[in-house]
Amino acid sequence: MRASEVRQKFFDFFKSKGHVIVASAPMVVKNDPSLMFTNAGMNQFKDIFLGNREPEFLKVADSQKCLRVSGKHNDLEEVGHDTYHHTMFEMLGNWSFGDYFKNEAIDWAWEFLTGELRIDKDRLYATVFEGDEKDEVDRDNEAAERWKNYLPDDHIINGNKKDNFWEMGDVGPCGPCSEIHIDLRSDDEIAQTPGSELVNKDHPEVIEIWNLVFIQYNRKADGKLTSLPQKHVDTGMGFERLCRVLQKKKSNYDTDVFQPIIQQIASLTDVKYGASDDSDIAMRVIADHIRTIAFSITDGQLPSNNKAGYVIRRILRRAVRYAYTFLEVRKPFLSGLLPALIETMGDAYPELKAQKGLIDKVIHEEEESFLKTLATGIALLDKIIDETLQKNYTVVDGKVAFELYDTFGFPLDLTELILSEKDLVVNRKEFETEMEAQKARARNAASVETGDWVVLKDDNEEEFVGYDFCETEVFITRYRKV
Ligand code: ATP
Ligand code: MG
Ligand code: MG
Ligand code: MG
Fold it and tell me: Which domain of life is it from (predicted)?
């Protein structure tokens, strides 16, 4: 089943259960000091859960563009090395705002996976919250009892607070969650070790696919939980993981969500996917990062030197360096992946098509400017690595990392990534001291900071619809297709 059909089936199914299908919120979050990027489907409904906004519909479903590269959820290190964590991914979700609760959420999740999509029931596991004495919360027997209609006892697993209790923050709405995991190992392997022992243990073939959150408590400032008058359901399912399951692949990257991009990388670099571990990781990282970069730009966040903009710049430079080191790319090539990205996601997210010209231009310029200093920076770093290894040291001077940052545009985490490949680390304290000293120098110089005005026009088919203010203090002139 093609990815686009999977997404459509999800929408159709929940529509048939009375849900209204709503659009994804932008991946870039504005006007919320606690969050730079949308990291879960619930973000756009936060005010409803907090009781600050009335829901327009009581039952909705959507596919939300999420990014997990900062804050509470940061999966950056996993990306490309494992087969199922991405920086940007789609989270399919269904929601009840004070309408249905646990029973329907569980029944429909089961019906969708095993009825509609015909996933093998024997391979599914459900986790339920085991309870917590300190919070005076019992095991989630309601969820467990409902699962008993579908699963044998040894497929219903108790889970701890970390995995099975969701909280928005120190105070506010929260509640237990029940997750669906799937065991994709061979029958032989399953006969040797039951899947129940591998759930939530980072096994690459026993993975979490769907989280059903039951928002039923409110945590007060004194830490105590009270029951909410209105109970809500908030679910999130990894779209790329679901596609992998349905397409019977070993990795999310082998599905039609990623393969066109990976094949385009292969053809542009003349390196086959499968040629070596290093080049495969590089291709997966690049295929992942191009999505993040492109969607950030369409959603109003250009690469820049601060906050969310710097997160995107770091990701872009990380992709460029993987291409440089492992695929021998010496010229800008990332924007050459846009046609493949548009092929895989352009129908579901037309903003990609509408803003292709903008994305192309921004990526090309960023890449070109970083490539100018990358080779010299890498040569310097290689020399430092050799010297450090020769001395049998494991820590690299923070001043070197700062020079790489300041002169060659290497974000600290990029330097750290390159060093970690040789089991070396940076003296962060020294790096930070250098950074502080530079900031002080800048303040003393009393430089006047000005925001940049970026006026970019895509093509003639678009009309100007107004200015948009971004966190980076960059103004983007927005155009809408006519
Ligand atoms: P995991 O334990 O695998 O890291 P999670 O518990 O952090 O996942 P949730 O916050 O429960 O994830 O998000 C809901 C669903 O979103 C998960 O069940 C999973 O299918 C999907 N998901 C989470 N993180 C990622 C990611 N980085 N890339 C792709 N899909 C993800
Ligand atoms: Mg996680
Ligand atoms: Mg988890
Ligand atoms: Mg989870």
Answer: Bacteria
Domain map (residue ranges) of the chain: 3-246, 393-447, 452-481
| Residue-level pLDDT at 473 | 28
Please tell me the predicted confidence (pLDDT) of residue 446. 54
Side-chain half-sphere exposure of 293, counting CA atoms within 13 A: 31
Q: What pLDDT does 72 receive? A: 82
Element (H, E) at 213: strand 206-219
Q: 208 C-alpha vs ligand 3 centroid, how far in Å? A: 6
Residue among 394, 395, 416 nearest 405 (CA): 416
Q: Could you tell me the two tokens for 151?
A: 């699963």
CATH number of 3-246: 3.30.930.10
Give me the phi and psi of 410, to 5 degrees please. Answer: -85, 110
Is residue 210 lining ligand 1, measured as CB closer than 6 Å?
Answer: yes
Give, using CA atoms, the residue closest to atom 1 of ligand 1.
208
Instruction: Note the pLDDT of residue 237.
Output: 98
Q: Say if CB 87 and CB 61 are below 8 A apart.
A: no
Q: How far is the CA of 208 from the centre of ligand 1 (A)?
A: 7
Task: Say which ligand is closest to the CA of 210.
Answer: 1
- Whether the Cβ atoms of residue 386 and residue 355 lie closer than 8 Å to each other: no
pLDDT beneath 50: ranges in the chain = 447-482
33 C-alpha vs ligand 2 centroid, how far in Å?
22
pLDDT of 444 reads 79
CA dihedral of 158, 207, 71, 26, whole degrees rounded to 10: -120
3 state SS of 425: strand
